[in-house]
Amino acid sequence: MKKIIICLLIITVVSSLYAQEIRNGVLTIKDGTTQIDSTSYRDVKDITKVVIPNTVTKIGDLAFAGCDGLKDIPLPNGITSIGAGAFSGVGAENIRLPASLTKIAKNTFQNCKTLRSITIADSVTEIGSNAFENCENLTDVVIPNSVTKLGEKVFIGSGLVNLTVPSSVTAIGKTPIDKCENIKTIKVDKFSFAHQFFSTTGKVTFSDKKPDITKEEFLSLYNENKDIVLDGILYISRQITDIKKNKYKGGTFFTRLSLHKKIKSIGDSAFHGCETLTELDITANVTSLGNAAFQNCTGLTKVTLGAGLKQIPYRSFKNSALTEVTIPGNVKIIGKEAFRDCKSLARIVIKDGVEEIGDNAFNGTALTEIEVPASVTKLGGGVTGKDVKWIVKKGSPAEKYAADKKLTVIVK
Questions:
Q1: Which end of the chain, C or N, has fewer beta carbons within 10 A?
Q2: What are the tens digits of pLDDT across the range 45-75?
Q3: CA distance linking residue 129 with residue 388, whole number of Å
């Protein structure tokens, strides 16, 4: 009987508390309150507005989490701490953070699917991990100059279209804009930490602020362990010596490459389908090129092959936009389909020293003639189209090949 009376008393007190505090959807926190405890109003669905007195300095973890009817949240100055996930899943459209707040904790506004704007006070120095995750209607965010750190996945899955990140930010966690499929611009200060961090997204625009350092200082500072895109050029990290398979496959955030002297190899399909790449200089230090390394680079019109290459392997430049190519004598093998379907390739110069040309190496090009040096001793099937004239040395393997294939031959 005593247990029943105690339970009834507790229910009566709690009911009385909510009856006092929530009226017509408005939750009024009592004057004099200094802290809203963790999970205090979690999943209370009938709250539409909360009135918080100036005496409150702290809002605990998950305090209003899941209150999807909560649309009006005026946050007074004096609040210095808002806990993790405190407003996750609320129904607010516009939130202004108080000037007394110094940190946006992790998950604070996670899953706020109706949130359209957030005003971050210039007192905030850190924005925690997943703070705005899945805020699918949040399109524009300006991070103030006070912020120095962004946590990982801070905007993951949000509706971001435009993001502004100042030079004050010097630390950014992993994949802060992952799955932000609508993002168009990331405005940064030129030569800042944020510039280097977001440079490979292809979304960077610059503020009007004058850079604090030079281009050379910027590259020296950040390019050691980070790829950087600057003026359309991809500067490969100076720590990389071997560009791995598929490393930049499908990348559309650069037009040229800067291959530093430590790079020795470029792996299979490393730049496959990089449609915006227009020029390529394979430096002398590169000794190995992978299969299909630059296949389907449909904007690539110019390539210089370095003195270190011994082979142009299978489909290296297939279906690129090359117009002419010179193959130096240090290259011994032109692999199968190396330049196949390069429909604009009208001129090819093969230097003495090349020994082998593989099947269909130049088939499907715009070539009308090809000069094959006497050093070439091995030729595959269908090297060129049947209407291409072959210019050959008398008595050379190429002369016999062309005659056997009933091609038009010009003997020098």
A1: N
A2: 999 999 999 999 999 999 999 999 999 999 9
A3: 61
- Tell me what the pLDDT averaged over the chain comes to: 94
Of 313, 379, 236, give the one whose Cα is nearest residue 305.
313
Residue range(s) of every CATH 3.80.10.10 domain in the chain: 22-222, 223-412
Residue 14: its pLDDT value, please? 38
The class of domain 22-222 in CATH terms is alpha beta
Secondary structure letter of residue 92 according to DSSP: -
Nearest to 399 by CA among 391, 335, 253, 3: 391
Q: How far is CA 345 from CA 256, 300, 364, in A?
A: 20, 11, 9
Q: Do the bridges between strand 22-23 and strand 26-28 make them parallel or antiparallel, or are there none, so unpaired?
A: antiparallel
Question: What is the chain's alpha carbon radius of gyration, rounded to the nearest angstrom?
Answer: 32
Tell me, what amino acid is at 154?
Answer: V
Res 272 pLDDT > 50: yes
Q: Where are the beta strands (DSSP E) in 71-161?
A: 81-82, 94-96, 103-104, 117-119, 126-127, 140-142, 149-150
Q: Are 333 and 355 in contact, with CB atoms under 8 Å apart?
A: yes
pLDDT digits (tens, 9 = 90+) for 149-184: 999 999 999 999 999 999 999 999 999 999 999 999
Judging by DSSP bridges, how do beta strands 324-327 and 347-350 pair with one another?
parallel
> Do the beta carbons of residue 148 and residue 169 sit within 8 Å?
yes
| Nearest one of 307, 259, 312 to 284, comparing CA atoms | 307
Locate 225 and state its tokens.
């362990």
The two structure tokens encoding residue 341: 């379907």
Block residue for tokens 């430590």? 262
Query: Which CATH number is 223-412 given?
Result: 3.80.10.10
